């Protein structure tokens, strides 16, 4: 099982999360590319550290929305969105190469991630950008999303993920953050859910039913209180359960 985490989300003098500590835990790093978070110095530092630790570098692409941290939907024209994603991919690829590594996958962030679950035009725009940049680059998607379908139709490699600390609707989509209980805060519950998902067991959905998830990667959030310790507990629990940990994207 792969463990991925959003990293490099500081900007200038402002920091968010403990990148170095989390890089010692996860197997894949979704590095912010400067549009919703991150800057050149941060991208360089995170890529250098990820490469030194053998952590896969992924491009965490989002809307051009630093004030809103990329969590506000923007009705951007598909052509513009394609170029914005290409710009972000190129920027991170430069820092990854200088670090002796490369960008190994792409994962949309925040509102863009949620939009491309159902938004045909924006999903197509993201797929076009990735395909033009490198058609061998995998997209990390939510199961059942328009993005996943569009990527598969375009011949892009795809991987699906599950979230350690998010509540799920019965259809397998994420409960919106605006709703109570959307983010799980009980560490024991989060750890138990991760082990269940990784070992093929069902987990409860938000309406009391059971949901089967078969992800290639588990996402642990790095910007919540206690994130580092929770990530360490998840990794230890998976190891104790006999689940091998490795990046999903090929080196």
From TrEMBL:
Segments passing through the bilayer? none
EC number of the protein = 3.5.2.9
Q: Which Gene3D superfamilies match?
A: Glycoside hydrolase/deacetylase
Please give one Gene Ontology molecular function term for this protein. ATP binding
Catalysed transformations (reactions): 5-oxo-L-proline + ATP + 2 H2O = L-glutamate + ADP + phosphate + H(+)
Example of a GO biological process term: carbohydrate metabolic process
* EC class: hydrolase
User: Into which family does the record put it?
Assistant: Belongs to the LamB/PxpA family.
Q: According to its UniProt entry, what is the function of this protein?
A: Catalyzes the cleavage of 5-oxoproline to form L-glutamate coupled to the hydrolysis of ATP to ADP and inorganic phosphate.
Q: What is this protein called?
A: 5-oxoprolinase subunit A
Q: Which organism is it from?
A: uncultured Frankineae bacterium
> Which taxonomic lineage is given here?
Bacteria, Bacillati, Actinomycetota, Actinomycetes, Frankiales
From the UniProt record, report the name of the gene that encodes this protein: pxpA
């Amino acid at each position: 099982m792969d463990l991925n985490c959003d990293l490099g989300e500081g900007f200038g003098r402002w920091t968010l999360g403990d990148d170095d500590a989390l890089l010692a835990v996860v197997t894949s790093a979704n590095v912010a590319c400067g549009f919703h978070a991150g800057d050149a110095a941060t991208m360089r530092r995170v890529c250098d550290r990820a490469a030194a630790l053998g952590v896969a570098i992924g491009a965490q692409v989002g809307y051009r929305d630093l004030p809103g941290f990329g969590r506000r939907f923007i009705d951007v024209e598909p052509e513009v969105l394609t170029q914005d994603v290409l710009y972000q991919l190129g920027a991170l690829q430069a820092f990854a190469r200088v670090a002796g590594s490369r960008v190994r996958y792409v994962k949309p962030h925040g509102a863009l991630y949620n939009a491309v679950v159902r938004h045909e035009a924006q999903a197509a725009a993201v797929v076009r950008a990735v395909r033009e940049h490198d058609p061998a680059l995998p997209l990390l998607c939510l199961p059942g999303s328009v993005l996943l379908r569009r990527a598969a139709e375009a011949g892009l490699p795809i991987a699906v993920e599950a979230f350690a600390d998010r509540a799920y609707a019965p259809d397998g989509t994420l409960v919106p953050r605006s709703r109570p209980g959307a983010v799980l805060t009980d560490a024991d519950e989060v750890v138990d859910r991760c082990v269940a998902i990784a070992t093929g067991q069902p987990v409860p959905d938000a309406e009391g039913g059971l949901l089967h998830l078969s992800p290639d990667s588990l996402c642990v959030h790095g910007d919540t209180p206690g994130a580092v310790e929770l990530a360490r507990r998840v990794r230890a629990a998976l190891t104790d359960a006999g689940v091998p940990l490795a990046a999903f994207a090929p080196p």
